[in-house]
Specification:
CATH topology of the largest domain: Lipocalin
Structural class: mainly beta
CATH architecture of the largest domain: Beta Barrel
Number of domains: 2
Largest sheet: 12 strands, antiparallel
Distance between the termini: 22 Å
Order of helices and strands: EEEEEEEEEEEEEEEEEEEEEE
Radius of gyration: 19 Å
Length: 266
């Protein structure tokens, strides 16, 4: 799975599908797992926001470009997730953004700076086509101010912690068979792939349309996600000796980010 906050965001995508139990092979991966939000770790470039009077730009966000901050939908080219983007300066401390695909909202975000300008709270809502909606909040700390900016949010911010996330974006269900695996997430991402490293199609993430799976050993699974044949992310999931806890280490090649999290099974 693709694992980025923006996107890193995709690592949370998770739904359930009925598969006959008798057809599946015995595996420590089988079942539904839930991500421990407090265990999430992220390493990557700071969030860089530029605001110049009526111009908005997030230099490190998945949607690239310079946009008017008047709330109007503006065209986005070459991004699989959105074809329009809007930015709106709400007040001296807050900015709101909306991305759309085919005229329908696919993501919303609100950035709010603290009174002293040193902390940023980001609220997000994702409504991908044909998939359940999810939401969350995260806290960022100020790295540097932009002296040429005209808004308190202008500058660089480092992700401090993930504060909340919808339950459906924190669960993933695996079903192992003799030569393939089925994965479904509560946020709508899914695949049915062989375990020999051959590429299979995916559903539920506009930025991922292919995946290759390798079972490195009975307790370790490697997933390589792709978009139009190009690798966009790599994730390695390792189940511990108890069979009840797993550590996921991920790399987001597009956004030059990496991280890890722990998920558990009842």
């Amino acid at each position: 799975m693709k694992k980025s906050f923006s996107a890193a965001l995709c690592i949370f995508a998770l739904v359930a599908i009925l598969v006959p139990a008798a057809a599946s092979a015995q595996s420590v991966f089988d079942g539904t797992w839930k991500i421990d939000l407090k265990s999430m770790r992220f390493e990557g470039k700071p969030l860089v926001v530029a605001v110049r009077d009526v111009i908005y730009q997030c230099k490190s966000c998945p949607i690239k470009g310079v946009f008017k901050s008047d709330g109007s939908d503006q065209r986005v080219i070459g991004n699989p997730y959105a074809d329009t983007f809007a930015a709106h300066v709400i007040d001296k401390n807050s900015i709101e953004t909306v991305a759309k695909k085919g005229g329908k909202e696919v993501s919303w975000a609100k950035y709010t700076a603290s009174a002293d300008g040193n902390t940023l709270t980001m609220e997000t809502r994702n409504t991908p086509p044909g998939a359940p909606a999810s939401a969350g909040t995260a806290t960022y700390k100020r790295v540097a101010r932009d002296p040429t900016g005209t808004h308190v949010l202008a500058g660089s911010w480092k992700l401090s912690k993930f504060d909340s996330r919808s339950d459906n974006a924190l669960t993933v269900t695996y079903r192992f068979f003799k030569d393939h695996i089925i994965l479904n997430t509560g946020a709508g991402f899914s695949y049915n792939a062989k375990l020999d490293g051959s590429e299979a199609a995916t559903k539920g993430d506009l930025g991922i349309n292919g995946i290759s799976i390798k079972l490195l050993d009975p307790n370790t699974l490697e997933e390589t996600t792709k978009h139009n044949g190009s690798v966009v992310g790599i994730a390695k999931t390792t189940i511990d000796a108890t069979g009840k806890s797993a550590t996921v280490e991920w790399i987001d090649k597009l956004n030059e980010a990496s991280g890890s999290y722990v998920m558990t099974k009842p």
